[in-house]
Write a structure and sequence with these properties.
Elements (H helix, E strand, L loop, with lengths): L2 H11 L6 H9 L11 H22 L5 E8 L13 E4 L5 E6 L6 H16 L12 H18 L1 H4 L7 H4 L4 H9 L4 H11 L8 H8 L5 H7 L9
Parallel strand pairs: 1-3
Antiparallel strand pairs: 2-3
Length: 235
């Protein structure tokens, strides 16, 4: 099994959302070991990944009105002093569309797959505006959970390994890991209900209502942690 075969499996799993012509095109693609937007086939696969991952995120956690440009900016192709190390989502200037930027330290297909899945959750309700309040830890917990599950389902079967860069593996005491460990106790169905009621994962103003949904999964103290602001200035 290969990365391309994993993507074909993903496309087949989501059914009619991916046209058969697109699946045929993927089959014909000749992708490089390290993806480059200068390679037509690589760029096409990146667009497919952006679409399919966001589609599955919506199926898992509910409908999104976010307008997406299904392109992916690869940081490893840019000057290191220009772009950040970590991945993110950002609004496109002069447009109401959003897209994904992959941090410059990620340069292989498997890790880029993980990053796209993680950022797809943030695209459900982007919180990257200066005039918005801080992001609660639940948002990052869900993003890590979704990326871990997608990687385990589609990538690990042929690599037999976890992703190289993941907070679950490399930063066991980080906010990301603790947020994931708590969020992972909550079923996706309940997380979908949370988002349906509150409109996002990053702003939950009513702890009592939140606990009425997830109280059978996490403790009161764990809820306090998830509903606290994520401090992006520390691990």
């Amino acid at each position: 099994m290969s990365f391309k075969e994993a993507i074909l499996r993903l496309c087949c799993d989501i059914g009619k959302a991916v046209h058969q012509d697109a699946i045929n095109d993927i089959t014909k693609c000749h992708i490089l070991k390290n993806p480059s937007r200068d390679n037509h086939d690589d760029e096409y696969i990146l667009r497919v990944l952006s679409f399919t991952s966001f589609y599955v995120a919506k199926q898992t956690y509910g409908y999104s009105e976010t307008k997406i440009r299904y392109e992916v900016q690869l940081g490893h192709e840019e000057p290191l002093d220009y772009l950040p190390m970590n991945s993110s989502v950002y609004p496109i200037n002069g447009s109401d569309e959003w897209m994904i930027y992959i941090g410059c330290k990620y340069d292989d297909w498997e890790q880029i797959f993980y990053e796209i899945c993680h950022e797809s959750v943030h695209l459900l309700n982007p919180a990257e505006h200066e005039d918005l309040p801080n992001v609660q830890r639940l948002d990052e917990g869900v993003a890590v959970k979704f990326a871990e599950n997608m990687y385990k389902k589609y990538i690990t079967p042929y690599t037999t390994k976890p992703p190289k860069f993941t907070p679950v593996r490399l930063a066991r005491l980080s906010q990301y890991t603790k947020s994931f460990n708590i969020t992972n106790k909550i079923s996706d169905e309940k997380l979908k209900e949370v988002r349906s009621i509150f409109g996002s994962f990053w702003s939950i103003p009513d702890k009592e209502k939140f606990m009425s949904i997830v109280g059978n999964y996490i403790t009161d103290k764990e809820a306090d942690y998830l509903l606290s602001d994520f401090d992006y200035n520390r691990p």
